[in-house]
Design brief:
This protein is α+β, with helices and mostly antiparallel strands. The chain contains 24 helices and 22 strands. Helix 1 runs antiparallel to helix 2 and helix 2 packs antiparallel against helix 3.
């Protein structure tokens, strides 16, 4: 209670004692007794401090009110003081005993309350523990029971739930429980129970049970036999766990592990795992098949044979660094396949850590990227080639939309005079460098191409900051989204400044070239004509002989006609025959002169259909006398049914005449050996072939290679232009002329000219 109340009790007790004393003195002589009770009551109810106050107040009140002289504080006699002290001590003793008893009662009451509280608490704890145990059994699917040889002594609620019994019906019979054990497992369960009891050891039974609805469950029961002091079995305490879900999970896990192994083995890569020190712990079969190595080989340094020798040192350093630092491992290396081929692989390794951050395993994968690596190299080379091609061709690529420049190649920056290091220029900066006179035209063309969704091409000028003007030829292609909106315009820009300048220069050069070509053709015609004239000069005597023969014959026939006319009578029939022969020989002389005149006449080249065999026979007729004078026999093997060739008859005959004269001259110095000239023709897939074969001394190999060079000649007085001109004529006819040795001696000159289109068709 509050302190003021406790001290108030002392004052109240003394006041009551005073009143009692006045009342009791009238009948009894008990001056001190009420005050002793007041002190005892104060000590009992208020404690020692208020008790002391009650003693002081009692002494003062007794001295004042009840000791003589009354109503005054007089000195107390020794006898009264002793008596007062004894009485006070007795009162204090009584108060102390009372206080001790009160405290003992209070402590006993407090102890009882604490005990009751603890009992309630322990009871609640026990109830909670039982609830927790029941809940734990329910959550863990664990039931508990106890049984002996004859009956089940205890059966938990969860055990009933697991076995399919109804808890309100009480503990099931041993027989009912036994009947729910799977028939295939009963003998094994019984043997385990008998063995555990016999050996007096705990044992575990794993078996199946069948519920009334046919559900099969898997149980794992831990049995603990309990024996008496004499060794008799008292009971078997069993804890049964429903492991049906675990078994299913184990089956699912095994199935998952099997599928995982299958996936690992079918992953298109080389998988491996290592312990924290980098020693191999698993290598998938694909790695073994790929490398042709065994697991033992790879675990004992076989990686050295697996890696390319050039990649091994750096890969070893990178792997060692990863193991020491616990960082990821990544390398692109070449690995040897079982057939000995090295292929590029992307190898990666990652550490697996526990919750404390310690590495417990390394897992790695190597993926064959050989084709990708080669494609990447090809792409890199292609990009380099493209960049180089753009640089060499002064062409760049760019992309833009309506608001910004999206991309520009390095060559595009160079063409437009921008610095690639400064990033993509703004659309306004690019627009400002377009020549002011070309901006409108360019803008209109781009707008038309976008609206019509088509490609465009345009040539315009740009002006660089230093005033340089460039011409650009641009090809653009707009790209649109599925909704039809413009996404971007991709352009190819070619710097045609030099080409523009070259075109101007080319036009000047072309005009000069046309003039030079005209002069060259005129000079070539002059040279060809001069060659023909020179050749005809060599045949002067033969030509004179050819012309003289028909003239002489005509004169002879004329004289004979005169004789026939002067005869009596005149023989007119003979005269007519002679005149006919004169006409024939005159025509013959005219044909010779005509052929000579055609060869000597200077005329432009023509493209006619030429009967090559007839042209050959005419040339042989001109050169017949020359051949005869040099003792050369001329033979021909002219194929029948040859198509006509397209060309200039005179120029082709000039080639034939040159080749025949050269052959006749070559055979002059062969001595007494036979001199033969064979001219043959035949039809070939690429045209008509003409061959001139002689039996002269032939050419040395070095001379054979140079025989068609201008100003090269094997004759002491030759200019070396004849064969060169012949080859030029044949090549102008789209043909070929070449020489080869004749076996056993002599030379062969052969040319092929295409057939006339009309004849070929």
């Amino acid at each position: 209670m509050p302190t003021i109340f406790r001290y108030g009790i002392a004052v109240l007790s003394v006041t009551i004692a005073i009143g009692l004393d006045f009342f009791l003195l009238r009948r009894f002589e008990v001056k001190l007794t009420p005050f002793l009770f007041a002190v005892a009551a104060t000590v009992w109810y208020a404690g020692a401090g208020p008790g002391a106050l009650a003693i002081v107040l009692s002494v003062l009140s007794l001295n004042y009110f009840f000791l003589r002289p009354s109503f005054s504080l007089s000195p107390i006699s020794y006898a009264d003081l002793v008596y007062l002290a004894v009485c006070t001590s007795c009162a204090l003793a009584v108060g102390w005993v009372s206080a001790v008893r009160r405290r003992a009662e209070q402590e006993l009451r407090q102890a009882r309350e604490e005990l009751e509280a603890k009992v309630v608490e322990r009871t609640a704890d026990l109830q909670r523990s039982e609830g927790y145990l029941a809940e734990a059994q329910r959550l863990s699917h664990t039931g508990s029971a106890a049984y002996n040889d004859t009956e089940i002594l205890y059966w938990s609620e969860e055990a009933s739930r697991i076995w399919g019994f109804d808890p309100p019906q009480g503990i099931p019979s041993r027989e009912a429980v036994w009947q729910r054990i799977h028939p295939d497992d009963r003998d094994r369960v019984n043997e385990n129970i008998e063995h555990g009891v016999r050996e007096k050891i705990s044992f575990v039974n794993e078996f199946r049970i069948i519920l009334p609805n046919g559900t099969i469950k898997h149980l794992e029961a831990t049995n603990n036999p309990v024996f008496s002091a004499s060794g008799e079995l008292l009971e078997i305490v069993v804890t049964g766990i429903d492991v049906t879900e675990r078994r299913r999970a184990e089956e699912a896990l095994r199935e998952s592990e099997y599928k995982l192994r299958e996936i690992i083995e079918t992953v298109p890569g080389l998988l491996w795992s290592l312990d924290p020190n980098g020693e191999p712990t698993h290598i998938n079969q694909r790695t073994l098949d790929y490398s042709g190595l065994r697991v033992e080989d790879l675990k004992h340094g076989g990686w050295h044979a697996f890696l390319h020798p050039d990649d091994l040192p750096e890969s070893a350093r990178a792997f060692s660094h990863a193991i020491q630092t616990g960082t990821s491992y990544q390398r692109v290396t070449r690995l040897r396949r079982a057939d000995g081929e090295f292929r590029w692989h992307d190898s990666r390794g990652e550490p697996l850590r526990d919750r404390q951050g310690r590495i417990i395993q390394w897992y790695g994968l190597s993926v064959d990227i050989d084709e990708g690596k080669k494609a990447e190299d090809r792409l890199r080379r292609s990009e380099a080639y493209l960049a180089e091609a753009q640089r060499l061709s002064h062409s760049g690529v760019s992309a833009f939309n309506e608001t910004a420049i999206l991309y520009g190649s390095e060559e595009t920056y160079r063409i437009w005079g921008f610095d690639p290091a400064e990033g993509v220029p703004s659309r306004e900066a690019v627009f400002q460098r377009i020549h002011s006179d070309d901006r409108g035209r360019l803008f209109a063309e781009v707008q038309r191409a976008v609206s019509e969704k088509r490609d465009y091409s345009i040539t315009y000028r740009i002006v660089l900051p230093d005033g340089t003007i460039k011409y650009l030829e641009v090809f653009g292609r707009p790209a649109f989204a599925a909704s039809g909106e413009l996404v971007e315009i991709v352009t190819t820009q070619i710097d045609v400044t030099e080409r523009k300048r070259a075109e101007e220069a080319l036009r000047t050069v072309e005009a000069q070239a046309r003039e030079n070509e005209q002069r060259y053709r005129e000079a070539q015609l002059e040279l060809v004509h001069a060659n023909r004239v020179a050749t005809m000069g060599q045949l002067t005597s033969s030509i004179a002989h050819e012309v003289n023969q028909p003239i002489t014959a005509a004169v002879t026939y004329a004289l004979a006609a005169r004789r026939f006319l002067s005869a009596e009578p005149s023989n007119l029939r003979e005269v007519d025959d002679a005149l006919s022969l004169i006409v024939k020989e005159g025509n013959r002389a005219g044909e010779v002169v005509g052929r000579i005149r055609a060869l000597i006449k200077k005329a432009p080249a023509r493209k006619d259909a030429v009967e090559i065999n007839n042209a050959i026979l005419e040339v042989i007729a001109l050169a017949h006398a020359e051949a005869a004078n040099n003792g050369v026999s001329v033979r021909t093997q002219l194929a029948e049914g040859l198509p006509t060739v397209q060309g200039d008859r005179v120029q082709l005959q000039q080639v034939l005449l040159n080749l025949i004269i050269n052959a006749i001259e070559a055979m002059r110095d062969v001595g007494e050996e036979k001199r033969e000239l064979l001219i043959s023709t035949r039809n070939e897939p690429d045209g008509v072939s003409v061959e001139v074969r002689d039996s002269g001394p032939g050419f040395a190999p070095a001379a054979l290679e140079r025989v068609f060079e201008a100003f090269y000649s094997t004759k002491t007085g030759g200019l070396g232009l004849g064969l060169s001109i012949c080859r030029s004529i044949i090549e102008a006819h789209n043909g070929r002329l070449w020489a080869s040795p004749n076996v056993p001696r002599g030379a062969i000159f052969r040319f092929v000219v295409p057939a006339h289109p009309a004849a070929a068709s």
